[in-house]
Amino acid sequence: MKTSKKHTRLAQNSIDYIVYSSPDSVRKLLYEYGYDPPQNPHHLVGATKELIQKKGASIITDLLDVHPDKKAILALQKEAPKKGCNACQNDGYNEEDNFCGSCGHSNYSGSGDEDSFLDQFSDTSDAHLEKYYQKIVKKSNVNPTDKKLADEVQVVWNELRQRRLLEVTPQPTPTKTNTPEVVTYKPIGRDEIILMSLSFLGGVVLCSVFKK
Questions:
Q1: Beta pairing partners, 99
Q2: What sections of 84-183 are H helices per DSSP?
Q3: Are residues 106 and 120 in contact, defined by beta-carbon separation less than 8 angstroms?
Q4: CA atoms within 13 A of residue 1's CA, in its CB half-sphere
Q5: Alpha carbons 136 and 16: distance in angstroms, whole number
Q6: pLDDT at residue 92 above 80?
Q7: Distance of CA 138 to the CA centre of its chain
Q8: Which residues are within 8 A (CB) of 137 and not within 5 positions of it... i.e. 6 or more apart?
Q9: Contacts of 17 (CB under 8 A, 6+ apart)
């Protein structure tokens, strides 16, 4: 459909702009409402405004459907999707306050304050933190342009690695001191006393024999 630049420059308001930019679509609209649309663009503008006075909001809605900049208008009005909570994926996450009203989690803000972010995992088990890590890795793969999320993945991975290092670090063995060893003596038993006595008597007998 061709539009006249001359007529578009004459447009004083949004109704004029729509009519001069899309005269064929406006004529079709008036025809559907039971009016015989004029061919002259200026008269078409007047007929459209008259129809608006009679029909009110309904005709305005239909006119917006034929607006030449409809796609641009809809793109501006489209709300940006909310950024969900990385922990529970709930809509209760408030991006402005960086706080989830459902689970209390805070996403990594990318400010460089890793300690403050990791404080919320101080009482979290290694297994639970591992599950959280796997969850944000998948989310980061789906949103590769989200730098804050990528940074959060790295921060959580560093925390997991640090915990694992602590688990495998060998405990220090006690050092040997120069304290002298305590010698314990085993008491002499009955059999040892009898054996010693017999040996002594045997020696006495032998000495007597040699003297004779």
A1: 94
A2: 114-118, 126-142, 147-168
A3: yes
A4: 14
A5: 52
A6: no
A7: 9
A8: 153
A9: 8, 11, 68
Element (H, E) at 12: none
Q: Please tell me which of 2-16, 85-99, 134-148 the model is most confident about, judged by mean pLDDT.
A: 134-148
- CB-facing half-sphere around the CA of 203: CA atoms within 13 A: 5
What is the spatial distance between Cα 146 and Cα 46, in angstroms, rounded to a whole number? Answer: 51
User: What are phi and psi for residue 87, nearest 5 degrees?
Assistant: -90, -50
Q: With CA atoms as reference, report the closest residue to 18 among 71, 69, 90, 87.
A: 69
By CB atoms closer than 10 A (0-12, 13-18, 19+), residue 163 is: middle
Tokens of residue 35, six digits: 């009016």
Q: Is the dihedral of CA 26, 29, 35, 37 positive or negative?
A: positive
Distant-in-sequence, close-in-space partners of 147: CB < 8 Å, separation ≥ 6: 110
Q: Which two tokens stand for residue 177?
A: 């001191």
Burial (Cβ within 10 Å: 0-12, 13-18, ≥19) of residue 25 = middle
Measured from the Cβ of residue 200, the count of other Cβ atoms closer than 10 Å reads 10
Whole-angstrom distance, CA of residue 119 vs CA of residue 29: 62
Please give the pLDDT value at position 28.
92
CB 26 within 8 A of CB 19: yes
Q: What is the pLDDT of residue 3?
A: 44
How many residues would you count in the chain? 212
Segment 75-104 mean pLDDT: 71
CB 159 within 8 A of CB 121: yes
Q: Which two tokens stand for residue 31?
A: 């025809």
